[in-house]
Write a structure and sequence with these properties.
The protein is mainly alpha-helical and 198 residues long. The protein has one domain. Helix content is 82%, strand content 0%. The mean pLDDT is 79.
């Protein structure tokens, strides 16, 4: 093995180690948040604010991590993060933190579904929900427009749709574009609405 091949092998090993480490860290953070959820720390906007506030100057990072995880693990309530972010950090900063966290989490959900397929979705969501959406959207010729509307409008089950889209034929590039252009509007509506309440 020459020097270039040795260097490539080292880089490949380092990238693999970093990827595994980040994945394990993500699992640890998600488990920690799920544990806090079942302990009742997220029962209301106020209790969630107190929870995020305990991280001090790292509170925006904690909120972003929560929003990332709540997309990947659908049991966590994403609405609380949007509300608390706007109230705690103001409409602009709250919007930015929520937008980045939710968008990255949505990318991860798509990636996981693309990698592990329908069995993962069936483990995370009721089978009836997957079947209903599958039957409804299999005949749709405008799924991209529907997905954009789902991201842009509040209340849609977009966490599920992130996973569901991962098992469709939509490309990674098209999904990313729809996500990053559509998602800001619903988060902005939450941020402005709750920011005005502050």
């Amino acid at each position: 093995m020459d020097n270039d091949e040795a260097q490539r092998a080292k880089r490949k090993k380092l990238i693999k180690w970093l990827t595994v480490s980040m994945f394990l860290l993500l699992i640890a953070v998600c488990l920690f948040l799920v544990r806090s959820y079942f302990k009742g720390r997220f029962n209301s906007v106020e209790s969630f604010q107190n929870y995020i506030g305990q991280f001090g100057i790292w509170s925006p990072v904690a909120l972003g991590a929560f929003q990332f995880c709540q997309v990947v693990i659908p049991v966590l309530p994403g609405f609380l993060g949007c509300a608390a972010g706007a109230v705690m950090f103001g409409p602009l900063v709250g919007f930015i933190v929520n937008y980045i966290g939710i968008s990255l989490g949505s990318m991860m959900a798509f990636f996981l579904a693309r990698k592990y397929g329908t069995p993962l979705i069936e483990d995370l969501f009721p089978m009836e929900k997957y079947t209903a959406w599958s039957n409804r959207l299999s005949e749709s010729k405008s799924y991209a427009a529907f997905l954009f509307a789902a991201f842009a409008l509040p209340v849609f089950p977009d966490d599920f749709l992130c996973y569901f889209t991962g098992v469709t034929k939509m490309s990674w590039k098209k999904y990313s574009m729809i996500l990053w252009l559509g998602k800001p509007w619903s988060i902005l509506a939450y941020s402005l609405g709750f920011g005005l309440i502050k």
